[in-house]
Amino acid sequence: MTHWLIAPIVLPAMLAPFIVLAARYHIGIQRVFSLVGVLALICIAMGLAWSASDGTILLYQLGDWAAPFGIVLVGDMLSTLMVLLTAVLALFVLLYAIGSGWDDRGPHFHALFQFQLMGIMGAFLTGDLFNLFVFFEVLLIASYGLMIHAGGNSRLKAGVQYVLFNLLGSTLFLFALGAIYAETGTLNMADLAVRGTLIAPEATVGIRVAAVLLLLVFAIKAALVPLHFWLPSSYAEAPGPVAALFAIMTKVGAYAIIRVYTLVFPPQLEATTGLHGVWLLPAALASLALGMIGVLAAKKLDRLVAFSVIGSMGMVMIAVSLFTPEGIAAALYYIVHSTLAGAALFLIVDLIKSSRASLGLTAMPVVAGATLTGSLFFVGAIAMAGLPPMSGFLGKLIILDAARDSALAVWVWTIILCSSLVAIVGFGRAGSVVFWKATSNAVPDETPLPIPHPLSFVAIGGLIALLAAHTVFGGYAHAYAIATADQLFAPEPYISAVLGTPGKLSTPMEGH
Question: Can you tell me the distance from the alpha carbon of 410 to that of 414, in angstroms, rounded to the nearest whole number?
Answer without folding.
Answer: 6
